[in-house]
Amino acid sequence: MRAMTDLSTARPAARAGFFERLKQKLNRGLGLGVALDWLVGRKLDESVIAELEDQLLIADVGIETTERIVAGLRRRLGRDAVADAAGARTALQQTLAEILRPRAQPLVIPRDGRPFVILMIGVNGSGKTTTIGKLARRYRAEGLKVLLAAGDTYRAAAIEQLQAWGTRNDVPVVAQQPGADSAAVIFDALQAAQARAIDVVLADTAGRLQNQAGLMQELAKVVRVASRLDPTAPHEKMLVLDASLGQNAISQAVQFHQAVGLTGITMTKLDGGGKGGVLLTLADRLDVPFRYIGVGEDAADLDVFDADQFAAALAGTAAPR
Ligand SMILES: Nc1nc2c(ncn2[C@@H]2O[C@H](COP(=O)(O)OP(=O)(O)O)[C@@H](O)[C@H]2O)c(=O)[nH]1
Ligand SMILES: [Mg+2]
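Above are the sequence and the magnesium ion SMILES. Below is the predicted complex in structure-token form.
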């Protein structure tokens, strides 16, 4: 059996701290923003259901997912009048957890002597470079040897930003001059990683618009070139998605998935006014694991996605476990 690093089970105290930050920051402490107190003493009749549906739609939950949530609430709360608000919140938490749980598949990095290549994909400003910095720190703390590849060659600033994260975390960075071929940079990086017995390569890519066919083709080229050095690489094609974009984030994810076949999603900016409903819709619509969530710009503002934790933060219930 090969040794594995399961990063999801790390540091229970740190994870409890992250839950508190998530709860405070998610939609400014309002979670999904669905009020439930008014349900007390009422049955889930048509007018009540219609009001709940409106609230869910406002919270960035898509129509089909809204119907699924309402059905879950009906099933849990039954036909009688709702007895108390805490019970309603728990019913909501359980319903949301049921939707999110199938997506909670943490990234497991095998320690098999081969560099594990993570390609970071997403539009400009979604948080790719920042997430690379956060993950570099995290993986290093887990004892992994990390290397960064400056595959966003469009802007000098993007290369410098990655180099700054490398310096801060004492992690090597493979870069070329601005305008260089992104696939060539990542090829170099993988070659260097193989020579230096690196465990993880975090490869940045340019923030391309998902509707530009040429840019999607370039991503496909990066994938192809990486697989020349290791047929199994890239091992992770991770979409970095700005969760504050609402329904727009859904169409981005769908298009990237069609273009490159995503193997993971990291959601950023859950502190940025987004209501979190995007994750519910994505979980319902797309069979791609959620890996990490980000709630701020600091390295500590990133953690492994935990379905029960996220459902509790959305529903305003206590920390699970
Ligand atoms: N509030 C907040 N800002 C973030 C988060 N992740 C990234 N950012 C910020 O978003 C901006 C764009 O991030 P960057 O990593 O450069 O995006 P990239 O273009 O995809 O590489 C930067 O100002 C980051 O500090 C997050 O989880 N929360
Ligand atoms: Mg960047």
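The chain has two domains: 12-102, 110-306.
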